[in-house]
Design a protein that fits this description.
Length: 358
């Protein structure tokens, strides 16, 4: 029998695919620090493109199987991650430390955009990513309430605004700068100005993901954001009714015109699951999001059920994914965070072919 050594371990791991990227994990430069002991124990590190990788278990299972088949005894896998940027860093860029900007958008208000943005940000942070959340809904900021974060940001030594932090997420919202209960009645140009300031004057630091909660529709906020920074992807949120879908068509058209990649669509408030009997009732109809996705050639990320825990959590500052039992809606949003992160990794890999060795 051939003695197991580093080269043979790498040869074996060359048969393990990263299913999203469609290449093997050695070619993708994901395998690090291979150590083979005299007894044939193997230890190595796998570097993921996102800590929120939905395929971790599958990769590990396959890696273990091929190494066992090659004669390894114990197999120890360590995980690390290095989120790649979707767009190449440019020195003059506004947010040089931010690797991916994810915009959460919708056609109309009240579909759960802020809810999805807040839960995605917290879920990504829970998976170990460094995450920021920018509340770009300048006239209707909801993020502070949903995350239970209040206070006045202070200035950093280099005179930038230090974001507040909650659930491991750095948060900025116009709400931090206006007195409680005061309506915000700014017009277009001021809205754009505020967003630019949140990009330019906030100490975001190094982030794997900056999630942006956009206002509904097609307004100055979308325009300013798209023109100021490279958006890695936008996620459209809709409810199953047709009205919402009509509006989301306009939002989609705007992103396409601004060359912002739309990574897919998620349907929210898909069905109400009775907490007593478990029966699912499709209050707002069914299948709208999926039909829309098919029609416009977008990926459909499934439906988030209507769940009282989501609404209550949003009102008291504990998003569903941060609740001890957030229920199926929380689980769906956790999976959504991983899928969206995976799609952005694929885009980043395509944008930066340097990552592939040999
Ligand atoms: N899946 C859900 N289940 C129950 N309530 C939800 C769900 N998604 C959103 N909500 C509630 O619906 C309301 C509107 O959601 P919000 O995120 O503020 O929408 P938008 O940002 O699109 O205007 C909020 O009270 C929120 O808690
Ligand atoms: Mg909102």
């Amino acid at each position: 029998m051939n003695e197991l050594n580093e080269t043979r371990v790498l040869d074996a791991l060359r048969t393990v695919q990263e299913p999203e990227l469609g290449r093997d994990i050695v070619t993708l430069n994901m395998v690090r620090d291979v150590v083979v002991s005299a007894d044939g124990d193997v230890a190595f590190t796998i570097e993921l493109t996102t800590p929120a990788c939905p395929l971790k278990d599958e990769i590990e299972r396959n890696a273990r199987a091929v190494l066992r088949a090659s004669g390894a005894r114990e197999v120890a896998v360590t995980w690390t991650s290095n989120v790649r940027r979707a767009t190449p860093a440019q020195p003059q860029q506004l947010l040089p430390g931010v690797k991916n900007i994810l915009a959460v958008a919708s056609g109309k208000g009240g579909v759960g955009k802020s809810t999805v943005a807040a839960n995605l940000a917290v879920a990504l942070a829970q998976d170990g990513a460094s995450v920021g959340l920018l509340d770009a809904d300048i006239t209707g900021p909801n993020i502070p309430l949903m995350l239970g974060v209040e206070g006045q940001p202070v200035a950093s030594p280099n005179n930038k605004i230090v974001p507040l932090e909650r659930y491991g997420v750095k948060v900025i919202s116009i709400q931090f700068f206006v007195p409680e209960g005061q309506p915000i009645v700014w017009r277009g140009p001021l809205v754009g100005g505020a967003i630019q300031q949140f990009l330019r004057d906030v100490e975001w630091g190094d982030l794997d993901y900056l999630v942006v909660d956009l206002p509904p529709g097609t307004s100055d906020a979308q325009l300013t954001l798209a023109q100021a920074v490279p958006i890695s992807g936008s996620l459209l949120v809709t409810t199953p009714q047709d009205v919402a879908l009509l509006d989301v068509t306009k939002a989609l058209a705007m992103f396409r015109r601004l060359s912002v990649p739309v990574i897919g669509i998620v349907e929210n408030m898909t069905a109400f699951v009775c907490p007593h009997c478990g029966e699912a009732t499709e209050i707002f109809g069914r299948g709208g999001g999926e039909r829309f996705a098919r029609q416009y050639d977008l990926e459909y990320f499934g439906g988030i059920p209507l769940d009282i825990r989501v609404r209550q959590g949003g009102d008291v500052g504990v998003p569903a994914v941060a609740q001890r039992d957030g229920g199926p809606a929380a689980e769906t949003m956790r999976q959504l965070a991983r899928t969206v992160a995976a799609r952005m990794s694929v885009r980043a890999a395509q944008a930066a072919p340097i990552l592939i060795v040999s």
